[in-house]
């Protein structure tokens, strides 16, 4: 079956512009996560969604970052007024559930470059 | 608060050597889950293993083995007879009762022929 799909795979934007990153999780997966990986760094948790529950936004670095998940499926991560420090690979992952044993399945990421 | 520490930033070995990647975690949850992921140069994260806090049995899968010790809050990963294809960044991760999966900083393993 299809894995987690992210688009675009690469995005170059000018400082100050808004960007939207899209994630299509694996069908049937109720949990969806966003992470950020800067060059040579680990994975920084941003946000996760579990079913109809309120999302855990505790990892969002500033109010310029927001995410939504429509219909319990597709998710969009929006970064407003991008800054150069936002340059990173943004990874989306999904799992059958977030509270149990299910491993996360990752997409290939969106590489964001802010010039 | 939850935390995962992978103290080894980079490890370099010669092919066929055994290598152990360390992972130490912190959590106040009584039920939690531990994971290892591999990120090869291609960039895609690959799930390797999961463990729950009630199962301290060691696990072996081919050349890979994992040692989970609650007494020391460690979940170490050993590769026996390493191969060049094992070269990658390896991440240890912790999922607590809140559901959030927290990753360590990763260990970059380089296996030279």
Task: Give the SSE map.
The complex is a heterodimer of chains A (115) and B (113).
Chain A: E1 5-7, E2 10-13, E3 19-24, E4 31-37, E5 43-50, E6 65-69, E7 75-79, E8 88-95, E9 105-106, E10 110-114
Parallel strand pairs in A: 2-10
Antiparallel strand pairs in A: 1-3, 3-7, 4-5, 4-8, 6-7, 8-9, 8-10
Chain B: E1 3-5, E2 10-14, E3 19-21, E4 24-26, E5 33-39, E6 46-52, E7 59-61, E8 64-69, E9 74-79, E10 88-95, E11 101-103, E12 107-112
Structure explained in plain terms:
The complex is a heterodimer of chains A (115) and B (113). Chain A has 115 residues and is mainly β. Helices cover 0% and strands 46% of the residues of chain A. Chain A has strands at 5-7, 10-13, 19-24, 31-37, 43-50, 65-69, 75-79, 88-95, 105-106, 110-114. Chain B is mainly β. Chain B has strands at 3-5, 10-14, 19-21, 24-26, 33-39, 46-52, 59-61, 64-69, 74-79, 88-95, 101-103, 107-112. In chain B, strands 2, 5, 6, 10, 11 and 12 form a six-stranded mixed sheet that branches. Chain B has a four-stranded antiparallel sheet with strand order 3-9-8-7, with no helix packed on it. Chain B has a two-stranded antiparallel ribbon with strand order 1-4. The chains are: A mainly beta (115), B mainly beta (113). Chain A binds chain B through residues 31, 33, 35, 41-43, 45, 48, 50, 56, 58-59, 89, 91, 93, 98-101, 103-106, 108-109, and chain B through 33, 35, 43-45, 47, 50, 52, 91, 95, 97-106.
């Amino acid at each position: 079956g299809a894995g987690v799909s992210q688009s675009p795979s690469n995005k170059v934007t000018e400082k100050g512009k808004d960007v939207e990153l899209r994630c299509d999780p694996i069908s049937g997966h109720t949990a969806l996560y966003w992470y950020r990986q800067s060059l040579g760094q680990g994975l920084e948790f941003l946000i996760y969604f579990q079913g109809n529950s309120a999302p855990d936004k505790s990892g969002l670095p500033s109010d310029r970052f927001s995410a939504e998940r429509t219909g319990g499926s597709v998710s969009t991560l929006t970064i407003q007024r991008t800054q150069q420090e936002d340059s990173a690979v943004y990874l989306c992952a999904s799992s059958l559930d977030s509270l149990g044993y299910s491993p996360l399945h990752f997409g290939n990421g969106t590489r964001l470059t802010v010039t | 608060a939850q935390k995962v520490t992978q103290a080894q930033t980079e490890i370099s070995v010669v092919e066929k050597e055994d290598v152990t990647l360390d992972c130490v975690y912190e959590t106040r949850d009584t039920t939690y889950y531990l994971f290892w992921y591999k990120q090869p140069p291609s960039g895609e994260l690959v799930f390797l293993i999961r463990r729950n806090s009630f199962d301290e049995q060691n696990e072996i899968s081919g050349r890979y083995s994992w040692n989970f010790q609650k007494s020391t809050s460690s979940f170490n990963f050993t590769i026996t007879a390493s191969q060049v294809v094992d070269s990658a960044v390896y991440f240890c991760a912790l999922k607590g009762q809140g559901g959030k999966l927290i990753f360590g900083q990763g260990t970059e393993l380089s296996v030279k022929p």
